[in-house]
From TrEMBL:
GO terms for molecular function: methyltransferase activity. GO terms for biological process: methylation. InterPro entries: Methyltransf_25, SAM-dependent_MTases_sf. Coiled coil: none annotated. This is Class I SAM-dependent methyltransferase. Keywords: Methyltransferase, Transferase. It comes from the Bacteria. It comes from Ktedonosporobacter rubrisoli. CDD domains: AdoMet_MTases. Residues 57-156 form the Methyltransferase domain.
Length: 288
């Protein structure tokens, strides 16, 4: 698949919540999380009326490429482009596309989305940003949405999906770990308010404010229970996140001396036979 121009290679510091995006544990976590969320939400574009009409789709902050590869498998008539600031993530995503035999319809490019999206005006039918709150500070949203609108064709779709920071579960230790993540997200400027919906509550308003029409939303309540494949994947995701987010939590003054004890206790509590958790997400989308 050819691209309109050859993007420049950026090696700049990232605002992502895991500063070291070459981190192998974070790559593994993102790959696990991509599949976990896509499956739990009913598919890659489950809320879109007819994804088969799309021809070009951009995924911003694609990480190891899981969402795009699943999308390319589901919609063989669509061409996909994924961008990420991490060269390692992009190298891995390209190899996965080869292995899954979708490389002819997928491009993965190293690009810093906080600068410019290096594509022509009106190039994509749908521009996707999933979990952008892990990358964007509150003051980064205007430029990001402006660029997303610029590279999307008239009548095309701008699509945002993000999470509530606090997960609701019967594991007290997991709840306390999530509270530290919430603290760090807010202190770092990733939340508009210091509460669990500090990103999701703003998504439809942001789309309307920066020029989208016909803004719609779909709430997702993802349930995970012990003894199920989804519950096990969720527990593994949480275990990896609790490790890779430690520098972020410490940097923003939200670490506590009992963090390691909480981490070990959370592992035990998530393995109990009655463990359950719910994770709330919101997808918001509008047209240009």
């Amino acid at each position: 698949m050819s691209t309109p121009s050859e993007p420049r290679n950026h090696e700049l510091p990232s605002t992502y919540i895991v500063q070291d995006r070459e981190n192998q544990a974070e790559l593994a976590r993102l790959e696990l999380q991509d599949h976990l969320l896509t499956t739990s939400m009913g598919g890659v574009l489950a809320e879109q009326e007819d994804p088969t009409k799309l021809r070009r789709v951009l995924d911003i902050g694609c990480g190891p490429g899981g969402w795009i590869i699943e999308a390319a498998t589901a919609y063989p008539m669509v061409n996909f482009t994924g961008i990420d600031i991490s060269k390692r993530m992009i190298t891995y995503a390209r190899q996965q596309a080869q292995d899954k035999q979708v490389a002819e319809r997928v491009d993965f490019l190293v690009m810093d989305a906080l600068l410019l999206l290096e594509f022509p005006n009106g190039y994509f039918d749908l521009t996707n940003l999933r979990l952008g709150g892990s990358l964007l500070r509150t003051w980064d949203w205007p430029k990001m949405l402006s660029e997303m609108l610029r590279v999307t064709r008239k009548g095309g779709v701008i699509r945002l999906t993000d999470q509530e920071i606090m997960h609701r579960s019967n594991s007290p230790a997991t709840t306390r770990l999530n509270e530290k993540v919430l603290c760090a997200f807010y202190q770092a400027g990733h939340l508009f308010e210091q509460n669990s919906t500090g990103i999701t509550a703003r998504l439809p308003l942001l789309l309307q404010q920066y020029g989208c029409n016909n803004v719609q939303t779909k709430a997702h309540v993802l349930e995970y229970r012990a003894g199920t494949p989804e519950g096990q994947a969720y527990s593994e995701d949480m275990a990896l996140a609790s490790r890779t987010l430690m520098p972020f939590i410490r940097k923003w003054g939200c670490m506590s001396e009992d963090y390691e004890a909480l981490y070990q206790q959370s592992l035990l509590e998530r393995q109990k036979s009655d463990f359950y958790a719910t994770w709330h997400f919101l997808t918001a989308w509008g047209s240009k």
